[in-house]
Structure formats: C-alpha cells, structure tokens
C-alpha cells in the first residue's frame, strides 16, 4: 500500500491522480488532517497530523511505501518530519520517499537547513528511502502573473539568474514513478526543469502571449521585500521570497542534469505552456499562443 502525506495539498492531489493511473485506488491512502476534505480524491483517507504523533502510527498501519511531502510549516519541519519517520518505523513502513530541495546538501537557500536535517534523519532511520530534491515550482513565479498584469511589470531580485523550474505536475509525475517502480531505493534525485529561464524571459513570454509589454524590473533585495509587504505579504514571508530571488541570481535554482525528464520519460513542461496555463486559470486574455 502507498500512502501520501499532505494529500489534499497542491502537490499531493496531483500525486494521487498520477498514482491512480497506474495502481488501483484501493492501494492508495491519503494522509490528511481532515479526511472529509479528501473525499473527492477517490481513495481511502486517514487522519494524520505531522504535529500529533498519536495520529501517525495508526494512519501508517499496513503501508509499505510512504511519500512524505515536506511540511509547509517552515521552522517546524524537522520535528514534524521526525514524528513521521518515527511512526513509519513503528508501523512497519518499508520505504519513505521524501520531497526535499534541489541540491539540499549545498544550497544557500534558507529553506535548505530543515531539508538537510530531514535527509540526515532518514539516513539514520534504518529505513529504505528515496530523496526527490525538488527544484523551483514554475507556479512560484507564474502565480505572480495577475499582479504583474495589474501593476504593469514583474518585480523581483533574481537578476539574470537562471531558474530551472518545472511544474507541480512534473514533480508529481516523478513521485508516482518512484513510488510504483523498483530500483529507486536509497537514491537521491536532483529534479529540475529541462530548460532554465530568467525572470526577464518569463516577463517576455507573458508579454508575447497577451500582446502587451510587461517588463521585468529588478530591484535590490530590501526594495523587493518592501514591495511584497505593500502587496499584503507578511513581512517575514516577503523577506524570505526576496531572499530566494537573490539566491536564484547566484545560481541556487539552476540544474542541467535532466534527471526529472529522465525519470518521467518526457520533457518537462515548457515555459510557454506554464505561462499559458497560468493565464487561463487566472482568466486573463491571451493573444494567439504556441
């Protein structure tokens, strides 16, 4: 049996759908805080809370392979992930697949520390594991498209940094492959998009598709953080996002190993396709696209 933590999240839902294409739904378990919210997934759902160890052993009973999608609660991840690992050992889980961060062992991103500690905990656990080190989600930047259209420009601090982003659907596909096929035990994969792009290139692609010039304006880190705060982001989040951009300018989000496309057996989603999907979902009008 395969279980997915955070199965009602943006990535988890996609993994469940991918798994259902290759294994019976009866072999999939969604681990969620509120099973009622998982009813539309079409698989069994069990209550599991990263911060409540008492829920985890029961939730993991009978599970052979677990996809541990990293917690969204930055600053609490190490303890939460350790709770899951401990429960998995107690419940008899054989392998944990963990969604880590691209080049977690060397990444300068502030996010990397908790991922490094979780990876170490998995190595120390005695369980088989697979590390899926995710690069940036394309949606992290295409999600800013509505704001850029409203304001007339993309803002950021990434300079000419190359971002080898892929979509959540690409990463979900890779997770489904690793969860259902043999030969991935105790392996680490650096997952990123096939074609890296800059924020200037993202702005140019949006401009092309809508038929209107939306430039990219590079700002000093503090100015970008202040702008994000002005748009309503909490100050700590705004500072973190601006810091991620600066790290991107230094190459932290670049990878050209093509391990993701090799895993999923196809090229990763192109920038043009990711932009088109974002424009469609936001209801923005586009000119002819290709």
UniProtKB/TrEMBL annotation:
Domain NAD(P)-binding: 6-144
Pfam families from the UniProt entry: NAD_binding_10
Lineage top rank: taxon: Bacteria
PANTHER family (alphabetical): NMRA-LIKE DOMAIN-CONTAINING PROTEIN, QUINONE OXIDOREDUCTASE 2
Protein name: NmrA family transcriptional regulator
């Amino acid at each position: 049996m395969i279980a997915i933590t955070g199965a009602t999240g943006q990535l988890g839902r996609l993994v469940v759908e991918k798994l259902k294409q290759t294994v019976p739904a009866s072999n999939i378990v969604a681990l969620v805080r509120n099973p009622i919210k998982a009813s539309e997934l079409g698989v069994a759902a069990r209550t599991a809370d990263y911060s409540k160890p008492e829920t985890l052993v029961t939730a993991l009973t009978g599970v052979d392979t677990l996809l541990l999608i990293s917690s969204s609660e930055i600053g609490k991840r190490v303890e939460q992930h350790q709770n899951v690992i401990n429960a998995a050992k107690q419940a008899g889980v054989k392998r944990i697949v963990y969604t880590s961060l691209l080049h977690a062992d060397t990444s300068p991103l502030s996010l990397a520390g908790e991922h490094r500690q979780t990876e170490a905990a998995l190595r120390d656990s005695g369980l088989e594991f697979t590390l899926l080190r995710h690069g940036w989600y394309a949606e992290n930047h295409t999600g800013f498209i509505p704001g850029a259209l409203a304001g007339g420009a993309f803002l950021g601090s990434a300079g000419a940094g190359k971002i080898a982003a892929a979509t959540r659907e690409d990463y979900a596909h890779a997770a489904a492959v690793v969860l259902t096929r043999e030969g991935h035990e105790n392996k680490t994969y650096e997952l990123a998009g096939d074609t890296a792009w800059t924020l200037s290139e993202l702005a140019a692609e949006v401009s092309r598709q809508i038929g209107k010039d939306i430039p990219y304006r590079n700002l000093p880190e503090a100015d970008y953080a202040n702008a994000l705060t002005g748009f309503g982001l909490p100050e700590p989040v705004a500072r973190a996002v601006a810091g991620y951009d600066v790290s991107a300018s230094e190459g932290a989000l670049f990878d050209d190993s093509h391990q993701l496309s090799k895993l999923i057996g196809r090229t990763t989603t192109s920038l043009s396709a990711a932009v088109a999907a974002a424009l469609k979902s936001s209801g923005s009008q586009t000119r002819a696209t290709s």
